[in-house]
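Working notes for the structural subgroup meeting. M.R. asked for a predicted model of this chain before we commit to crystallization trials. I am recording the input and output together here so anyone reviewing the notebook later can reproduce the run.

Input as submitted:
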Amino acid sequence: MLSTAERTTASLHSYAFVARTVVSSRSASRTTVAGRVVVGRGLAYTLTTAGHRTQVVRARGATFVRAVPGHWRRLAHPHLVAAPTPTLLAVLRGMTVSHLAAAAHGATTLTGRLAPATARAAGLPGDHPTTVAVVVDAAGHVRSLTIHTSAAVSGRLARVAVRTTFLRFNAVPAIRRPA
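Returned structure, recorded in token form:
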């Protein structure tokens, strides 16, 4: 099942995603990233955190950003961010599955762990245990990925939970530079 999900993911041309992250230490911080990927063409997403929305478009070697509402600007030196497809593929390739369970609509839930080196290679914190749950539908599409780990944040150990939902496989609009 995991190898089928890996092959299906590697063959995708485009998809949409929604990633919800909660970082908990003394209090909880929530972030949502909703966007779409067109493999080899670009990435567009909206980042929502603490009530603020920022849109980002990475297309044809350029990165554009704007606070919503606001004007687009091209970044001269964009920061590197974890790319959704390579991160998902690294998790699928490196995951050690410990349990399989039937999920809704013929899907299967695979739960397991990532070794620290595998987590780091996927762009995730890798100093603490990382548990993973992947829901794969009958066609081999990853429908959701849930990651639980810990990371040092401001000198404290914080719990990190990320739940990403994937949808609209090979059916998202092209990504274009903002006007």
